[in-house]
Predict the 3D structure of the following.
Amino acid sequence: MPAPRTPRVKSLIQLLESPFWALATLLFLSTPALRSQSFDTGRNLTVAEQYLLAAANEDRANQGLPPLHFDPVLAEASAVHAREMADHEEISHQFDGEPELAARGANAGAHFSLITENVGEAPTSVIIHNLWMHSPGHRANLLDPNVDSIGIAIVTRDNQLFAVEDFARTVETITLNQQERTVADIIARSGIHIAETTKDARETCTMSTGYAGSHQPWFIMRYTAGSLNEIPSQLKIKLTSGKYHQAVVGACALPRNTPFTAYNIAVLLYP
C-alpha cells in the first residue's frame, strides 16, 4: 500500500500595474478554517470547490473585507491548471510548455490588472484551506483587499485533490475615447488646457521612448494602470509646476504579447 502523500501548497503573485508595462513576479514556496455558505456562482461547483469559496469569503468577512465575486472565466483558467497538476501529480505554478499565470488568465478571457494564485494538494479541501490560511503568502492572497474576483477549480486523482485558486482585480473594458476623457477630466482640474487627442498622441502611447509627429512635447508620461481614477504622482507634480499649460492625452491598446488587460495611457505636456 503506497504511503500517504504529504499535503502541499504554493502561492504566486503577479502584480501587473506599474509604470509602463513593468512586470513583477513573487513566488512563495510555503505551507491557511469554517462553515459552508451558499453563493450564486453562475457555474456548478463541486462540494469541495463550494467549500473553498465559502471559506475564503468567510475569512475575508472576519477581517472586514468585501467578499470575492466568483468569476467563471477565471475559474476556467484555474481548471486548466488544476488538470495539469493532476496529470503531473505535482503542484506548481507552471509546467514545461504551459503558459504562465497571467497568460493563462488572459487566454481564458479574464480582464485584470492584478492576478495571484494559490495551489495545493491534499485529501480534502478543508486541509488545503487550513494550510493556505496558516501560510503567510497564501493568507495574503486570500485576504488581499486589492482583489475582487476569484476562480476556483479542483481536480481529483487517486483520492488527492489538486486545487487552484486564482484571484484577480478586474478591469472594466472601455473604449480608448472613454479612457482619454477620464484622464483628461482629472488633468483639467489642475487648470491645464486639454487639447483634442490626435493620432500622434495615440501613436506616442505605443512607443517606449520618443514621440510621434512634429510637435515636440516638453514632457511625456506613459503609464499603465488598472484604474483611471488616479494619475501618477510624478505627473501631478508636473501639472502644478507652472511650466505647462496644455496637455494631450492618448490611450492605446497594450502590446499583443502583454498577457493582461489594463489601461495604457500617455500624457503629453506642452508650454
About this structure: The first strand starts at residue 8 and ends at 15. The mean pLDDT is 83. The CA atoms of residues 156 and 162 lie 6 Å apart. Helices lie at 47-62, 72-88, 101-108, 125-133, 136-142, 176-188, 199-206, 233-239.
